[in-house]
Design brief:
Layout: H1 9-14, H2 17-38, E1 42-51, E2 56-58, E3 65-71, E4 86-90, E5 98-107, E6 119-123, E7 126-133
Parallel strand pairs: 1-4
Antiparallel strand pairs: 1-3, 2-7, 3-6, 4-5, 5-7
């Protein structure tokens, strides 16, 4: 009978290799499941300020709120006060009739929280409004 010391390192790794591969796959799956369960973004709706052009009026719905997703690890996403986040959509560049798109700009101050750890993203990233000349 051979002692445990006589097995080579390669021999010990290859013994029961099927069980070791299955264990590794299960461990990766459990890690991924836990990671994505903990790191789901916090989604909230905040009011939006829409800047309209002077000579044109909206022909379609003007959004009054925007959905934002707050990405952060752990509970940091719940430490952000939604009242400190402002959304602005600027359509002042419109100079003709038609459908125009403008990016949704977010302004916020995270204070002591680190900006490189927390990411705030609007969904969708832009808004579309149809405009027509005033008085038509």
């Amino acid at each position: 009978m051979k002692s445990i010391k006589s097995y080579s390192l390669l021999g010990r790794l290859l013994k029961n290799w099927q069980v070791k591969i299955i264990s590794l796959i299960v461990a990766i799956f459990v890690y991924a499941l836990a990671y994505y369960a903990i790191n789901t973004p916090r989604t909230i709706r905040i009011p939006a300020t829409v800047i309209l052009p002077e000579d044109y009026e909206p022909f379609s719905n003007v959004p009054d709120s925007v959905d934002i997703a707050i990405h952060a690890s752990g509970d940091a996403k719940y430490m952000i006060d939604p009242l400190l986040i402002e959304a602005r959509i600027d359509f002042s560049f419109v100079n003709a009739q038609g459908v125009f798109s403008a990016p949704i700009e977010l302004e916020y101050n995270l204070g002591v929280l680190q900006k490189d750890v927390i990411q705030i993203v609007p969904h969708p990233h832009s808004a579309r409004i149809a405009f027509q000349k005033k008085g038509l």
